Amino acid sequence: MITAARVKLYPNEGQKILLEKHFGSCRFVYNYFLKKRDEYYITHRDAKKSSLNYLDTQNMLIELKKEHPWLYEINAQSLQMSLRFLDNAFKNFFHKNAEHPRFRKKERNEFFAVPQHIKIQGNRIYFPKFSEGIYFKGSKEKLSEIKDINEIRITKDSGYYYCSIIYEIPEELPEKKPLSEDNSVGIDLGIEKFTTLSNGIAIENPRFIKKVEKRIKKLQKQLSRKQKGSKNRRKQILRLQKEYKKLRDMREDFYDKVSTAIAKRYDTIIIEDLNVKGMMQNHHISKSLSDVSFYYFKQRLEWKAEKYGKNIIEIGRFDPSSKICSRCGNIKHDLKLSDRIYHCNVCGLTIDRDLNAAKNIRKIGLIKVGSVRSEFTPVEIATSGLYGIYPYRQRSVVESGSSEASAEEQLT
Ligand SMILES: [Zn+2]
């Protein structure tokens, strides 16, 4: 299994300068070839070879170094890694998994990678061009034991330097529990409550996180009153960056704890596939949604499930998980975002909105993998407004015992 450890670096003045040169040069190479690849495509659109690949750019890099000899000061493999990252960004773009790669900006997400010749000894990490090693703080006993370092990534955040050590551990993962209804749980991620589980447990966003969010808002307001380019404004930006970092760390810690608890406790975990981009388009709720960064949480949960041998079922994201009655399957089309309580006009169920959604998510997931006997048969339909798989027929359809074809007729 591949895992990572992050340590804080304490470079001396000379090393700081060289680190900055690495950041700058890797950014330069990335941006230079991003432009080259775009230009090539424009002029060769109709040619047999319409785009540059990784190897092309690697060969061009040799020429670029002759033009800009200062690039020789930089670890050659780190520059090549920049080309690799660019190539991946383009591949993701071509496969429609990401937007067109963007130019990297100074002082934002500064990083470079080192793929080889890395050694950890005591409290120092050694890699090419840093032959006397950079001092770090972290568990040196554990890190010195690492035999197989795949790669390290050096980053800069709020003026500090960090090193992520990506390495392999031979440890085998536990065998997966059988996929079943027993000990399964559906998870609804929300704004009001952080998560609601299908068994009625709700987990709130911790108060200390709300406190930092409040402070950030205040600092932002103050920043808007500071004069552009002034010393005070720069100070304020640094202060804000530190609060952001604090918030990020707190959240990561919180997500880590919640995902561990869920993965340990349940054998089958059902969660909605989150279309983050789709959610962002709804401006009204975009801020809170991006704030709780569900995406990161889901990644943690997936990783923890892997670690404890548990199952994760993902279901498609579609409206009805909150609109369906979890007891009778009736669909309430006029449910508003502001309705916190779900009341079913057909069977009379009155239930917390998020709990109703969590129960549906669980049921839909179990139906999807065929491990639940449901009185409601899945009906696959695609209509203009509602899309995806409808897990339930409407009550009248079920009662009449009609075929799937006529069920479709009634729904559309
Ligand atoms: Zn109902």
| Helix fraction by DSSP (H/I, runs of at least 4) | 40-55%
Sheet with most strands: strand arrangement = 2-6-7-1-5-4-3
Please give the largest β-sheet: 7 strands, antiparallel
Shape: globular
Helix tally equals: 13
* Beta-strand content bin: 15-25%
| Number of E strands | 16
Rg, nearest Å: 26 Å
Q: What ligands can be seen in this structure?
A: zinc ion
- End-to-end CA span: 48 Å
Rounded mean pLDDT is 81
Going by helix content, strand content and strand pairing, the class is alpha+beta
What are the secondary-structure elements, in order, as H or E? EHHHEEEEHEEEEEHHEHHHEHEEHEEHH
Return residue spans where pLDDT drops below 50 for at least 5 consecutive residues: 374-412
Q: What is the number of independent domains?
A: 3
Task: Spell out the key features of this protein.
412 residues, alpha+beta, 7-stranded antiparallel sheet, 5-stranded mixed sheet, 13 helices, 16 strands, 46% helix, globular, binds zinc ion
Describe the structure in your own words:
With 412 residues, the protein is of the alpha+beta class. The protein has three domains: 2-168, no CATH class; 184-315, no CATH class; 320-411, no CATH class. It contains 13 helices and 16 strands. The strands form four sheets. It has a seven-stranded antiparallel β-sheet. It has a five-stranded mixed β-sheet with strand order 10-9-8-11-12, with helices on both faces. Strands 13-14 form a two-stranded antiparallel ribbon. The longest helix has 35 residues, at 231-265. The model is unreliable at 374-412 (pLDDT under 50). It binds zinc ion. Residues 325, 327-328, 330, 344, 346-347, 349 line the site of zinc ion.
